[in-house]
Amino acid sequence: MSGAGVRIGAVVRKEFIHVGRDPRLLAVVLIMPIIQLLLFAYAISFDVRHLPTVVVDLDHTPDSAAYLRAYEASGLFDVVGHGADPTAVDTAFDRNEAQVAVIVPAGFAASLARGEQAQVGVLVDGSEPNSARVAQTYSMALNQLYGRALAVEWASTQGVDLGQIGLVEPRLRTWYNPDRASSIFLVPGLMVVIIMIVTAQQTAVTLVREREQGTAEQLMVSPLRRIELMVGKLTPWVIMAFLDIVVIAVLGVVLFGVPMRGDPVALAVGATLFVASCLGIGLIVSAVAPSLDTANMAAFLVAFLPAFLLSGFAFALDQIPPVLEWISRLFPARYMVTISRSVLLKGAGFPEVWPQVAALAAYALISLLIAVRLHGRRA
Amino acid sequence: MTREGEVHGIPADPSAAISVRGLTKTFGNFTAVDGIDLDVPRGQVFGFLGPNGSGKTTTIRILTGTSAPRRGQALVLGEDVVAHPERVRPRIGYMSQKFALFEDLTVDENLRFYAGVYALDPAVFAARRRYILEMADLQGRERELTRNLSVGWRQRLALGTATIHEPALFFLDAPTSGVDPVARRQFWDLLYELAGRGVTLFVTTHYMEEASHCHRLAFIYRGRIVAEGSPSEIRANLSTQRVYDVTVRDADLALSWLETADGIAEAYLSGAALHAVIDRGVDRGAGALRDRLVAAGFADAVVVSVEPTIEDVFVNLVSRERGA
Question: Residue A242, class by beta-carbon neighbours within 10 Å (0-12 exposed, 13-18 middle, 19+ buried)?
Answer without folding.
Answer: middle
